[in-house]
Amino acid sequence: MKQKISDFQLSLLVANVIFAGPVISLPQIILQQGDQNAWVVPIIIYPILISFIFIIFGKDKQGDWLQNVLNIGDKSKWIDKGFIMLFLLFVIFTIVRDLRGMLDFVAAVLLPTTPNDILMVLSMLVIVYIAISGIEVVARVNSITFTILFAIVVMLPFLLMNEWNFGNLQPLFGWDSVPAILRALYVTFSWMGEIFFFLIIISNISPPKRARRAVIVGTGLGLFLFFVVLFSALGVLGTRIIRESTYPSLMLIQQINLTDFLDRLDLVITVTWLPTIFTKVAFLLYAINHCFSYLYKGNTNKFLFPIAFIVGYLSILMFKNTMDLLRFSFYTWNLIGLLLQLMLIFIFLFVKRNVKMRMKEKEAET
Amino acid sequence: MKIGMIVVWFFLIMYILFVFKKEIVSKKERKWVYLWVGLAFGISLMDLFHLSLSTVTTFLNVTFEGISRLVVKL
Are B55 and B46 within 8 A, CB to CB? Predict the structure, then answer.
């Protein structure tokens, strides 16, 4: 039986996908490009993403066709397979980048003497356990971890109240800040465009008519949290410090200094933040499994264990060091991600048309 | 030998024993198990001998990074 997730779980999954990975080090490049006005980037990017969501879902409010998109074992045309292959490429790039980002972060901050491959193996064992259980388990784990993270991030501006310096946000907009904001928008789009991962689980949403709203809400939620982090980082640290910092979000939470004894909250927050990244990677691994299952025309859960280790080793071997990863993430991924996402949306429209045509043919037969 | 590789090999051997003993895969599917496990062994050996796959990333960086750098400020 096909596993189902609710619209609320989908919202949280979408929000997690665009928040958990990028928040590690993306604020650095956004603030480097957009300067003190970079906090408007999530606000500008939201309507752009909504327009893409409307293009994907179309006018049909009932969304009956959603139940028949990319189902495992169904007859497939070359365009469906092409979409899956492209999606596989997109998801592999993202999982390798995010996993390595997480491993480097843990190695730099929490476990500096533990070898990278041991961190990878232990992480993959947890991730494969979640992913192999299916999308329902991924969504449930995500609901728990993301809710905790949401509460912490929303409280962040209040926890940092005594450290705010509004002078860091000045000078406010002028015409000369438009190019800077556009540059920051270009850098951010490929990361926020990862909401399109929902395309692979589009047939698992129940009820389907609420799918569009759920994706819009989830995107808004993720962007809101990202806005809170960006705005707080700017207000507390300022652009000069963030430009030089590899992990600006960590630096931000290290500034929490409530009383004399509550000044090491960063470890607690990091420990609640890491499971959301684990869930995101588990979701990406599930997406890889779904792609393989579609091409294999059967369940490939039984092969996922070695595949997870291959992906883990790829994340270690593809980047020589953290600088190599940041170079790929900040400069190369912008264009590759953007191209892949635009191609995926374009091809998906054909996939959707095929699904609708098949449904009409079935109706005519009956 | 790296400790990570030893752990990976141990888990892969356990995986093979588990899927064959419990008959989770049919005889036709065994070739896929061998393929994926073989690839995992191979890639762990690459890590052991420090054979990096960064040429792929370097190629992508050289090809696409230049275009991005025309847009972004350095």
Answer: no
Identity of residue A366: T
Q: How confident is the model over A227-286, as pLDDT tens digits?
A: 999 999 999 988 888 888 888 888 888 888 877 666 777 888 888 889 999 999 999 999
- For residue A205, list its beta bridge partners: A5
CB contact (8 A) between residue B4 and residue A319: no
Q: How far is CA A181 from the centre of its chain?
A: 22
Model confidence pLDDT, tens digit, residues A332-345 = 999 999 999 999 99
DSSP-assigned beta bridge partners for residue A5: A205
pTM given for the model: 0.94
Question: Is A322 exposed, middle or buried (CB count within 10 Å of its CB: 0-12, 13-18, 19+)?
Answer: middle
**Domain containing residue B61:** 3-71
Cβ within 8 Å, pair B68-A309: no
Residues A45 and A194 sit within 8 Å (Cβ to Cβ): no
Nearest 5 degrees, angle CA A199-CA A218-CA A210? Answer: 70
ipTM score of complex = 0.94
Give the one of B4, B7, B64 whose C-beta lies nearest to A332's C-beta. B64
- The pLDDT score that the predictor gives to residue B74 is 65
User: Which residues contact residue A70 at a Cβ distance below 8 angstroms, ignoring those fewer than 6 apart?
Assistant: A80, A83, A84, A199, A200, A202, A203, A290, A294, A351
Partner-chain contact B11 A121, CB within 8 Å: yes
Asked whether the beta carbons of residue B4 and residue A32 sit closer than 8 angstroms, the reply is no
Question: Coil, strand or helix: which one is A4?
Answer: coil
Hey, what domains does chain A have and what are their CATH numbers?
A: 7-365 (1.20.1740.10)
> Rounded to a whole number, what is the distance in Å from the CA of B5 to chain A's nearest CA?
8
Cα within 13 Å of Cα(A53), Cβ side: 25
DSSP states along A66-77: GGGSS-TTS---
Structural domains of chain B, count: 1
Burial class (CB in 10 A: 0-12, 13-18, 19+), A208: buried
Mutual orientation of helices A116-132 and A304-317 as an angle, nearest 10°?
Answer: 150
Selected for mutation to probe chain A from B21, B37, B43 (highest A CB count within 10 Å) is B43
pLDDT band at A22 (very low <50, low <70, confident <90, very high): confident
